[in-house]
Structures are given as C-alpha cells and as structure tokens.
Design a protein that fits this description.
By secondary structure, the chain is of the alpha/beta class. It has helices spanning 3-10, 31-39, 60-70, 84-94, 113-124, 140-149, 152-155, 159-162, 179-185, 196-206, 227-247, 254-279, 287-290, 293-309, 315-338, and strands at 18-24, 47-53, 74-78, 99-102, 128-135, 167-168, 173-178, 211-221. It has an eight-stranded mixed sheet with strand order 3-2-1-4-7-5-8-6, sandwiched between helices.
C-alpha cells in the first residue's frame, strides 16, 4: 500500500470530513431510519449525506426532500436510470469530501461505524475498509434466510457474510473509500447492475490497493420476505457472477461453481430417474435408478446441514431452513447457467 496515502490520514490530528453516499430507490419504509442512523453516529468530524434518488414508485423522493430540509448536511441528486452503480457515481461526483462511505437505503449503521472505519483507514492505509452484512430476520422465514446468509453452508466462507479475523480481503460489505482510490480505477462500472461492489474491489486490488475487513463493522441487513423474492435475488447474484467471471476468468473458483454443479446434479439426476420410472427401465438398467442419487443426496445434505446450522433458531424458522437453502443454491446456480443465453450478459 502507498505510504503517502497512509500518511495523508495518519498525520492528521483532526478527524477528516466524510461524505456518506447512498443509492436510493423505493426505500420509503426504510430511508428515514437509515439516514437518522447515520446522523446519530456521533462522528467527531464533519458529515455529509448524499442521496442519489432513482425514479421510485413510492414516497421515497418526498421523504428524501423532507430529510434535506430538516438536515442541512443531507443533499439530494438525481439518478434517472435508477441503477445502483450510476447512483453511486452520481453521489460521488456531488460529494464534497475525500472519504466516501457507501451505505444502502435500507441499511442501519451501528454506533461508531464511521469512526471505526476511518480509524482503520488511518492505521492500514487501505483503499477501502468494510465489514459484514449482518442479516437479521423478524418473521420465521426471514430468520431462516438470515441464518443461511451468515452460514458457510448457505453462502460459502466469505468474511463479509460469515465474519472472521481483521485483515486484507477480496471484498467487504458496503465500504468506506478514499476518493483518490476510486478516481484511480474510474469509479463504479455502470455495466454491472449487480456485483458492482465485488468488481470494484477487484480493480482496487489489481491496481495495487488494499481492501481491509474489520469485523466490528457489522451492518444490519433485512432479508427478503418470501421464497419468490429470495429466488429472484439469488438468480440475479448467480447471473451477474457469471458476467464477472467472463470478464475476469482468473477469479473462477470452486465456491462459485458449486451451485451450478448442484443444479445440474439435482435437475439432471431427477430427469434421468423420472425417465426410468416412466419407461420401466429401472427393472433392467441400473443407470436410471442411479440418477436419483443426485437429488436425494443433495436433499439429505441440506437437511442435515440445516439441522446443525439452525439449531439455535425457533422451530418455525428451523423447519423453513432446508427449503431456504435449496432456494438460494438452486436459484444462484440457475441464474449462473442461464446467463450465457441472455444478450445482456455481455460485459
């Protein structure tokens, strides 16, 4: 990491001013709480909140304008496309300060988040500092999703989901950046509707910068409320991961291939087994029967894993956990496999 970049903060006796950048679209139920949580940080330095407003279908824009009237440090800018990366770039362009904290419109920053992140920027010289998406559910379904989203069985062993020790990381949740670092790599790539955080962090690291994980920077995240919404979310994740891997083939890893392999094993095995049942080939051929090994084995694996991972959950949430895990895995894998057939998949 650059010594000059580290010194620019560490030699300063005062807390540097921070601009919080927030992409906002259809966040009516959450926006006021999210902004109030930022303003309640008690950050020792100057604070600015820049809201990049997309074309919301609810009262989000009115709430944002009201917040700007109540709090002079809140600034609103337009984001006509409604897309997250363009919102972030618009907010960065409008922001006044050299340290930029990315926050979502439904995220609730914990007390001391900004001070902890800025302190880490000072001591590490990193380009980006962030923490973990701390999923917290209210309903039994959301509790099951939160458990899956913070479990290696659900999302793999990535620190910004499951936690871990402080140190360099491939990516972090949200992030507190140096403006100069974002300028160095050209900001967020607006071609990435999803996975823009991971892709940006990859370019920061490739340019010689450091992305730093701090476990204390937990940010509360509210999971999707239904199987349909969860499946759509994870299909998008898988689809855009395919785009990232096509642009950066060196990032391919077994963790990203596990879900597509599971889809092929479950769907393909069930199809082979069904053919055997329909045609009666199971009486004389072993391979149609063997097809059921994939789906039955996968079902047994997630049922056993859910029993272990969900042992602390209420019974109503624990019973939903196997189906939640299957939804996440199979939707992600299907999105990944289907991406190659979509014209918009090109990077």
């Amino acid at each position: 990491m650059s010594e000059s970049r580290s010194a620019s903060l560490s030699d300063s006796g005062d807390w540097p001013p921070v601009s919080v950048i927030m992409p906002v679209l259809n966040e009516g139920p959450h926006l006021r709480d999210a902004v109030e949580a930022i303003l309640a940080q008690g950050y020792p330095g100057q604070l600015e909140v820049v809201l990049a407003l997309g074309p919301s279908r609810d009262d989000t824009t009115l709430i944002a304008q009201d917040l700007a009237i109540l709090h002079p440090c809140v600034v609103c800018v337009d984001n006509p496309s409604g897309r997250t990366p363009s919102a972030l770039n618009a907010a960065i362009a409008a922001a006044s300060h050299e340290i930029l904290a990315r926050v979502d419109g439904h995220a609730l920053l914990p007390e001391g988040y900004l001070a902890t992140a800025v302190r880490a920027l000072r001591t590490t010289g990193a380009d980006n500092v962030g923490g973990r998406m701390a999923a917290v559910g209210v309903t039994p379904f959301e509790q099951a999703v939160a458990c899956a989203m913070t479990s290696p069985l659900g999302v793999g062993s990535v620190r910004y989901h499951t936690g871990g020790q402080e140190g360099p990381a491939n990516s972090v949740y949200l992030g507190v950046f140096r403006r100069e670092a974002l300028a160095r790599v050209g900001g967020f790539d607006e071609a990435f509707v999803r996975a823009q955080d991971w892709e940006l962090n990859y370019r920061l690291r490739a340019s010689g910068g450091v992305v730093w994980f701090v476990p204390q920077l937990d940010v509360t995240y509210r999971p999707r409320p239904s199987y349909r919404a969860l499946a759509r979310q994870y299909a998008d994740y898988g689809s855009w991961r395919r785009v990232v891997m096509r642009r950066y083939p060196e990032t391919v890893s077994p963790r990203y291939l596990a879900a597509p392999v599971a889809v092929v094993g479950v769907v393909g095995g069930a199809a082979v087994g069904a053919v055997g049942l329909v045609t009666g080939l199971t009486r004389g051929w072993w391979w149609p029967t063997l097809g059921w090994v994939g789906p039955l084995g996968y079902g047994a694996l997630i049922t056993l894993g859910a029993a272990v991972e969900g042992r602390h959950l209420p019974l109503s949430a624990r019973l939903r956990l196997p189906a939640v895990l299957a939804t996440m895995h199979l939707a992600w894998g299907t999105g990944f496999l289907a991406r190659s057939t979509r014209r918009r998949a090109r990077p």
